[in-house]
Design a protein that fits this description.
With about 220 residues, this protein is of the alpha+beta class. It has 9 helices and 4 strands. The radius of gyration is 18 Å and the shape is globular.
Length: about 220
């Protein structure tokens, strides 16, 4: 099947001149993928972090009363996946063809299924027994299943990256899920997943991402 390459749709030059402001709590959480994309792009931006006590001050500035939110020049946008896709597209991390974009979106949603299951287990129940059972399922079932799927994808692609032959949003989302976020403690990237381990190290070796990782703030989530 022949797939035409997409026409040049990014606006990197325009984005280089745009003022960006990222709104989020003082943690990694749902905003960290955006920070990693911006780090990889070398794009300067205002990383506006606030405490839970300060949240009422910023909540009215967001479209839906939620964060992360991203301000582009004078307009504020929201929804984390929309923000990630926008930034990845603008800075060249969303593939070069329709099918590559499709595959990247597929993998991002696969990893998000794991992250969402982790969040549900960690925060959405006050019943200790139910929480313990949910965490056990994430660690022993959801995590290994996700890593197994990713291992197969990497084997088929054969480049070290999840899609294509260069860094994409899929790789960045994998890095976030496995390095220091709220879900990373529930994901055991052991020797059963050698290709996943290699990809994580490959993404870390990116000069700009590596610099960001070396200097980013510690965060429990």
């Amino acid at each position: 099947m022949h797939v035409d390459r997409l026409p040049h749709m990014t606006y990197i030059e325009k984005m280089a001149d745009s003022a960006l402001k990222l709104y989020y709590f003082d943690g990694r959480g749902r905003a960290e993928v955006a920070r990693l994309i911006l780090a990889a792009a070398g794009k300067e931006y205002e990383d506006l972090r606030f405490s839970e006590e300060e949240w009422p001050k910023y909540k009215p500035l967001t479209p839906y009363g939620q964060v992360p939110a991203l301000q582009v020049d004078d307009v504020v946008y929201a929804q984390s996946n929309a923000i990630f896709s926008f930034l990845a597209r603008e800075f060249g991390f969303l593939g070069g063809s329709s099918l590559e974009i499709f595959k990247i979106d597929e993998i991002v949603n696969l990893v998000n299924d794991f992250v969402n299951a982790s969040a549900d287990a960690l925060f959405h129940t006050d019943d200790p027994a139910a929480k313990e059972a949910a965490l056990k399922k994430v660690k022993e079932v959801v995590g290994p299943r996700t890593l197994g799927f990713l291992e197969v994808i990497l084997e088929k692609n054969g480049t070290g990256y999840l899609v294509g032959d260069k860094l994409s949003l899929a790789d960045i989302v994998l890095l976030d899920a496995t390095t220091g976020g709220m879900a990373s403690n529930l994901l055991d990237v052991n020797d059963d997943y050698p290709l996943v381990k290699k990809t994580i190290e490959l993404v870390k070796s990116n000069e700009k991402i590596g610099k960001y990782l070396a200097t980013r703030k510690d965060s429990p989530w």
